[in-house]
Amino acid sequence: MTAQLEDQLRRGCSEINLSLDQKTLNSFLYFIELLLKWNKAYNLTAISDPEEVVSHHILDSLSIVPYIVGNLIMDLGSGAGFPGIPCALMLPEKQFVLLDGNGKKTRFMTQAVGELGLSNVRVVQSRVEDYRPDKCFDTITVRAFSSVATIIKQTSRLICPSGEVLIMKGIYPEAELQTVTAGMKVVRLEVPGLNSERHLVCIKGLSNE
After folding, report:
1. What is the chain's mean pLDDT, rounded?
2. Sequence spans of domains, the chain
3. Angle at 62 between CA 30 and CA 95, to 5 degrees
4. Who's near 22: CB < 8 A, 6+ residues apart?
5. Which of 6, 36, 89, 101 has its CA at a distance of 20 to 30 angstroms from the CA of residue 17?
């Protein structure tokens, strides 16, 4: 199974134009193993098949890497660490804050970050409404968290003036985008092994809203 997952990860990263060295590949494999181990007790994700974890979680998360800007990134509502941990593994030169209000999920992320030796990641257990960082963020990533309007409301005070909020969605969220007045573009993502629509809503200028 390990060889199969290695091949799936290598091919998937190649398809989305990301280079994957052996050390990072090993980290992904260990992260998958850790996730599935914890999942048996803590129900972190509905997915229990390792190959589906690769396609639905790892590669789905990595599909947004080309759109991440700046050096300080927050992953809002990280859950079991997606997309934050895969992005942090792929971008070791950038600093990540993984924010989630769920105790069991932040405990898992803290354990994973420690075991993976991710010195560029800090896990914070907090509701976004209560979170008061001392710096603004260059990029904020959001996956399966809330409506676009709600995310805009929650992130406008956290994003830098030149920063960008990246909201991961499934089908094109036409109705949700009707009220967006900030600068926006929507990119269709192609995720290897994921046979469903994926879109990335990229929003700029929120701090001026």
Report:
1. 94
2. 61-208
3. 80
4. none
5. 36
* H helix or E strand, kind and range, residue 6: helix 2-15
Architecture of domain 61-208: 3-Layer(aba) Sandwich (3.40)
- pLDDT tens track for 101-129: 999 999 999 999 999 999 999 999 999 99
Please give the model's pTM, rounded to 2 decimal places. Answer: 0.96
Instruction: Give the integer Cα–Cα distance in Å for 191 and 209.
Output: 32
Q: Whose structure tokens read 């997952």? A: 5
70 in Cβ contact with 160 (< 8 Å): yes
Please say whether the beta carbons of 207 and 161 come within 8 A.
yes
Integer Cα distance of 142 and 148 in angstroms: 10
Task: Report the alpha-carbon distance of residue 91 to residue 47 in Å, rounded.
Answer: 25
- Asked if 209 and 151 count as a contact pair (C-beta separation under 8 A), the reply is no
- Which segment of 50-54, 93-97, 136-140, 183-187 scores lowest on mean pLDDT? 183-187
**DSSP, res 95:** E
